[in-house]
Amino acid sequence: MTAMRKNISEKACLIALARNSLEKPAADASLEELAELTRSAGGAVVKKVLQTRVPDAAFYIGRGLVDKLKEEFQGNNVDLVVFDDPLSPAQQRNLEEAFGVKVIDRSALLLDIFALHARTAAAKMQVELAQLEYTLPRLAGAWGHFSRQYGGIGTKGPGETQLETDRRRVRKKIAYLKKDIERLGLQRETQRKARQDMFKVALIGYTNAGKSTLFNRLTKAEVEVADMLFTTLDSTSRMMSSGYPEKIIFTDTVGFIKKLPHQLVASFKSTLEEATYANLLLKVVDYSDPDFREKITQTDRILSEIGAHNLDSLVIYNKLDRADEEAIRHEDDKGGFYLSALTGEGIEPHREELSGRVKLFLVQLPKV
Prior knowledge:
With 368 residues, the protein is of the alpha/beta class. The chain has helices at 2-7, 24-40, 63-73, 89-99, 106-117, 121-135, 139-150, 156-194, 211-219, 262-267, 269-272, 292-305, 347-364, and strands at 11-18, 44-52, 80-83, 102-105, 199-205, 236-240, 248-252, 280-286, 313-318, 337-338.
């Protein structure tokens, strides 16, 4: 019986806010993405709510909606409530007390997904660092909740002492992880110096755009591929010489997403920085996604954050095998490549472009 229970998905209600009617389409699209994220984390989406209003300081959503949802949740039809925007520790606490179920925000959900997919020691350390930095400001709220729940004599003093102890432990662990991640960054720097005379290509883009499938196609590698978000958390580099006149280093990177928590951007900086050392960025886009242009914009935003927005780049319109045959390729898309990394359709013109760029790179190398 216990084993069966572990396989049962948490039933989730997803909530988003649009500040006004103009924001509703974007908020609705973000809510759909939140549903995909929830399913990637193993949850079952049973309800989605989009409210138009300014955020409430205490509950984020309107108090009338809080009361309405509270009644609905009493039937045990929801185990988890996920908000699409960041909640303050106080808002999260108030909502949990009102609903009587677990409440998290998109940041906590993404941290959970990253923890689920972390495979290597480096990825695990980066996820743990992000989780601790997310948790630290919430420790005071957790102890405040403890004091109100149990109240009376014997909770205030010990609670405060325990809080300070916990804070020290968390800060100490954060410092330790940062040093370890910095050490890994130095190792990567040494590896990069050894490849200075090689043409380096980084595959970047929105999560689940098919970067790892393209990486495998170009390098004959066997990086894990799955039709879900954030299968790749580590940057993986492979040398490719077959089919090219000279050797190329390809690097597969962690996918981007809207509203990526700053803790994750900071923690994965050493991994994301691989892109900043590339000679060419391949911006991989899921061409079958109706919202692919917005995904390109989001990718460009994160490239700006890591200082890679001025690097030479090519747009790869991937998943041509899934795209609508009637899709119109606009004039401003002429510089990109349309292909299917899965089937290999359209891959040869892309290979030829890379070969031409490698030849130019080698000509420009300083003669020793």
